[in-house]
Amino acid sequence: MLPNISSKLLQAFVALADCRHFTRAAERCHLSQSAFSAVIQKLETALGAKLVERDTRNVMLTVEGEMFVDVARSLVADMQAAFGNLSDYVARRKGRVSIAALPSLAAHGLPAVIAEYRASYPGIEVRLHDALSDQCLNLLRQGKVDLAITAPNARLAEFDTRPLCSDPFYLVCRPDHALARKDHLALADLAGCELIHLAKSTSVRQHVELLTQGIAVRDSGLEVEHLATVAGLIEHGLGVALVPALTLFQFRKPNLVAVPLAPGQPERPILLAVPRSLSIAAQGMLALIELRLGSDTVRQAAP
Fold first, then answer.
1. The CATH number of the domain where 160 resides is what?
2. Does 254 share its domain with 184?
3. Long-range own/partner contacts, residues 287-294 (CB < 8 A, 24 or more apart)
4. How many domains does the chain have?
5. pLDDT in tens, 87-135
C-alpha cells in the first residue's frame, strides 16, 4: 500500500535538504518553524523512517534521507511539470485540434477561421482534413479529429450535432443558356436541362437528386469527382450543374453564370458533429467556427 504523502510534505523535505536549516527551510515554505517541524515529522511517520538528524546548529540527512531526497526531488519536479502542462492546456498555450470538413468549407471559409485561431493561440497545432461526408464521420468516429463539418448523414446519431448554416443551390451555366438571364429559378424551370453530376458519394449529388426528383431533367452522362472539372465541362457547352453556394468560388469565371433557386427552395444543411467530450483547445475552435461560419459565410460565397 502506498503511503499518503502530499506534495506539501515532499516540498518541505526538499527545502530542508537544500537549506540544511529548519528556520530557513520553514521561511522558504512560508510556515512557522513549529509547523514546518510537524510537516517533516508527518513525512517520516508516513515513510516509517527517520530522514534527518538535527541538533541546535546542524541538520543532516540520514542514510534513508539521502536515499529519499532524489526521489522527492523527482516527484516534485514531475508534479510541477504536470501542473504546468495542464495550465498551458487550460490557457490554450499548448495542445492540438483536428478538424474534418467538406471540401467546399475546407477551401472557402474555414482557412480564415484557422488563421484567426492560430494567431490567437500560436502554441496549438491545428490539423485539417478535407473529406466527403462519410469520411468526415469516419475520422470523427476513429478519434482522428475533434470535430467534423459535414452534411446530413444517417450515421450522425452517435454524435452531438448542431446546425451551422444552410447552403442554397444555384444553377451554373454558360451566358448563352436559356436560363442564364433569369433572376432566380423555380425547380420546374430545370426541366430539359442536361445536368453534369458529381459522384454519387458526394453530399451535393445526393441533394441534387432530391431536388430534381420528379422533374424531367436530362442526364449528360458526365459524372466527375471535382468541381473544377464540372466548371470546365460547362464552359465547353457540355451541360449545366446544380451546386450549393459554398462551392461557387470554383465557378467564378467570365464565361459562367450562377443563377439562384427561388427563395423557399430546399437548401443543403451544414452541420457540426462533435463527440460527447471536447478538449479545451477544441472547444475554442468550435466556438470560433460557430461565430465565423454561420449564414454570413454562405451569403459572402454567393455572387
1. 3.40.190.10
2. yes
3. 288/113, 288/116, 288/117, 289/110, 289/113, 289/147, 289/149, 289/164, 290/162, 290/164, 292/109, 292/112, 292/113, 292/116, 293/105, 293/109, 293/110, 293/113, 293/149, 293/164, 293/165, 294/164, 294/165
4. 3
5. 555 545 678 899 999 999 999 889 999 999 999 888 888 999 999 988 9
